[in-house]
TrEMBL record:
Keywords: Membrane, Transmembrane, Transmembrane helix. It comes from Streptosporangium minutum. The keyword Membrane applies. It comes from the Bacteria. The chain crosses the membrane at residues 33-52, 64-83, 121-139. The keyword Membrane applies. This is Uncharacterized protein.
Amino acid sequence: MTLRRGLIALTVLSILGTAFELATERHWQTWEQLLPWGALVLLAAGVALPALHDSPRVVLAVRGLAVAVLLVALFGVYAHVAVNHEAGFLDQRYAGTWGTLPALSRWWYALTKSVGPTPPLAPGMLAQTAFLLLLATLARRTSGRNGPSAPAVVHRQSHPS
């Protein structure tokens, strides 16, 4: 139960931290920038639902929400890296050589934000938050409502030889 509560607390902190980051970046200019806001709403619902009604169906629904957010986050990582890759030729360090760099180097620079304006780590944080919520449902499932189950005890009977 303590593990589950800790995972839920980390999930809530991650939701709040991600929301703060999105707000400071004014991340609402296009429909694509609204996707992480919707993902945060799904994650918040995933945290709240079991508190309202704890059942196997609710756990399954929370897992579905977490997987949906993971998919949105993966799209976000791809979108951020692609924008950085497209902006590579604008970077003053690589403007003259961007087209001649090996493709793997260009994608690496885009992934690590060596070029481009968008941080691929931001949607990665969203994926981490969804993963924490998913782990919280697994901790609940294995521990049950009354805490961790006691280990099975095997009794050996001694037989006269």
